[in-house]
Every structure is written in C-alpha cells, then in structure tokens.
Amino acid sequence: MAKHLGAKPRIGLLGTGPWAARTHAPALAGHPGVEFSGVWGRRPEAAAELAAASGTRAYEDVDALLAASDAVALALPPDVQAPLAVRAAEAGCHVLLDKPVATTVALAREVTGAVEAAGVASVVFCTLRFAEPTARWIDEQAAAGGWFLGEAHWLGSLYGPGSVSAYAASPWRREKGGLWDVGPHVLSVYLPILGDVTDVTAVPGPDGTHHLVLRHDSGASSTATLTLSAPPEAAEAALTLHGSRGRAGMPRWDGAVGAFAAAVDALVTAARTGEPHPCDVRFGLRLTEILAEAEHRAARG
C-alpha cells in the first residue's frame, strides 16, 4: 500500500555517485518542503560521507531507509536502479527514478508493474522536462503544433580527448554510450511535441555514435545524433523544430539541482492527488522500448 504523505514528506536517496552528490543530495537537503530522511549506497563509506555533508544520516540497510521514508530518489546505474525501485514500490515508497529506468524492456516492465501494483506515484527525472526554460518551451511548442520535422544532436565529450569528467568512470555509460545516456533527453522533448514514435531507423557511427531517424504518430519525422565521444571543441546539445511557424530552437538551461527540486515537487503532487505525472514510470518504460529498438536496429547495421 502506498504511503501517505504528511505535511513534510520524508524522502531518502539511494546512490552516492557524482550525480547523487552533485544533484540529488543538494536538492533534497535544500528543499524546504521535504525532510531528507537518509542515504543508502552500495559503498557504506560513501553513504556516510554524503550523508554527513548533507545533514542527514546514512543507512547500511536499504530496507531500513525504505521504512524510514515516504518516497525515495534513485541515482544508480539503470539496471541496479530497476530492482531497487521494485523493492521500494513494494515497501509503499513513491519513487523518483533516474533516466533510463532500465536498459532492457523486461526490467522496465518489472518496475512499471511494481509501481502500478503498489499504487505508488512515480516520476522519471528527465532534466529537460523539469528545468524551467526547457520545460516551458516544450509546453509552448506542444501547444502550438504544426511541426513536421525535428533535428537534434547531443554531442557529449565524456570520452573525448582530455576528458577529466567524474562521470567517465561510470561502467554503464562506457558500455551503453550516448544512445542510453543522452538519448532519453532527446526523446523526452520529441515525444510530447511530435507524438509517440511509430518507427525507428538507427545507424552506428564512429566511437559509439548513433544516428536515429524517427517517425511520429503525428506524421512528423525527427533525427538525432547521439554520442559521448565528441572532441571537446565540438561538444553541444541542440534541438530545432521546423514547421508552419518557421523554426524554433530549444533554449539553454542552467544546471540540474533546480530541475531536480521541481521533479521532487512533481512527485509529491502526484502522490497527494493521485494524478499521474506525464514523466511517470510508464513514460520511462516507453523510452526504454524505443531505445532498445534503436539499439537492435543499429546492431543489425
């Protein structure tokens, strides 16, 4: 049974890596409307360090943190996140998931089924859907309509020459690449504006790059080039729409802490009202289905 939220919901954090330390923990610690109930990590020493820096307590037993929380945020590799999200939902905790929910459709369906069976609220943190400039722009373009083409390229330099990013040490990003790491960002913009994807063409490029061509149920088409291996000089994230009103370029956004705080608000609202958020676990499942199909198509050459 889903937990009832009090005046100040208790939200715990599962995960202690750079993304958790730089985004999730600061947002939860600084949020005036929630109680940061604690941190659990696969490395107890990292959990203790992050908890001390965030003014909360560390848990060595994940079930103890679930018992002490009304909701949990997850900042873990996707296929580690999925079974723990199932466990959290079964404990009645509302879940704030990271993208992608999982890197297999089967695992994403398990999470979705657990969330639905428990009746808990869910939000998948797709940064562009919660950062104020981009979230407002997406809503405006979806309302305007009339788009027939989208063009996107997300050229990350995580594995480019000279990179010193802390995220480069992530094994799952190294294995799955830009398709799974930044692909969800692009899809999270395209789907609410152009509609669901009805057909996928995918071609592999150099150094883990993927080129996608998508058909949408609105009749529009879109393209996306995704990589984590671009030279730093070429790094950029851009998305442009073309339609009856001309061209519209997605605005830039600044950081993720504020966006994550907005996602926390969205989860609390969904839990209190019972109204699903557009970026709920079902949306996360759909992203996984599209990306898995793209991966399959690219592997076939």
TrEMBL record:
Lineage, top-rank taxon, reads Bacteria
Q: Where is the Gfo/Idh/MocA-like oxidoreductase N-terminal domain?
A: 10-121
Query: What Pfam families has UniProt attached to this entry?
Result: GFO_IDH_MocA
Cross-referenced InterPro entries? Gfo/Idh/MocA-like_OxRdtase_N, Gfo/Idh/MocA_oxidrdct_glycsds, NAD(P)-bd_dom_sf
UniProt keywords (A-Z) are:
Oxidoreductase
**Entry keyword Repeat:** no
Q: Does the keyword Oxidoreductase apply?
A: yes
What protein does this entry describe? Gfo/Idh/MocA family protein
Q: Which organism is it from?
A: Streptomyces litmocidini
